[in-house]
Amino acid sequence: MTIDTPAIRHIAGLGIAYEVTDHGPVRSLEEAAAARGMDPDDLIKTLVVRRGPDDYVLVLVPGLRVIAWPRLRALLGVNRLTMADPDEAKDVTGYERGAITPFGLKRPLPVIADERIAGRRVSIGGGAHGVGVMVDGDDLIRVTDATVADVTDPR
């Protein structure tokens, strides 16, 4: 069975090596990592952060880490940031929470990638629940034109 999502169609056209995994529904990041045969920190969460009215950025966060809000605010030059709620995130990206990815978005959004993504093989959402895409972290950073910075802390 071939998985077909806007994200996978987008990735397929980028000219980078990738591998799609379809493991079905999981209840946690740790379950998803086990289903994909990877370390939880190699699973990349795509979080939608509101910078202002109708102004969003995507933050790529390694699995067992959380956003370091003071450093992210400093990087973006703002005093206030908030997470988009699930309905807002779907409206902005076209994807449900748990399936959000920087690929195949409804509209382009700036991407911030935690510096720990560079130099490793990672898995990121494939645009549907239970679907992941394994890519080289450096390719992920390059094709999303991500700003790379230290924006996370251990959870």
Percent range for β-strand residues: 25-35%
Q: Can you count the beta strands?
A: 10
How far apart, in Å, are the first and last alpha carbons? 36 Å
- Main β-sheet description: 8 strands, mixed
CATH architecture: Alpha-Beta Complex
Q: Looking at CATH, which topology would you report?
A: YbaK protein
Q: Runs with pLDDT <50, length 5+? A: none
What are the secondary-structure elements, in order, as H or E? HEHEEEHEHEEEHEE
Q: Tell me, what's the shape?
A: globular
CATH superfamily: YbaK/aminoacyl-tRNA synthetase-associated domain
Number of domains: 1
* Overall pLDDT score: 95
Share of helical residues: 10-25%
Structural class: alpha/beta
Regarding CATH, which class? Alpha Beta
The gyration radius over C-alpha positions equals 14 Å
**DSSP helix count?**
5
State the gist of this model.
The chain has 155 residues and is an alpha/beta fold.
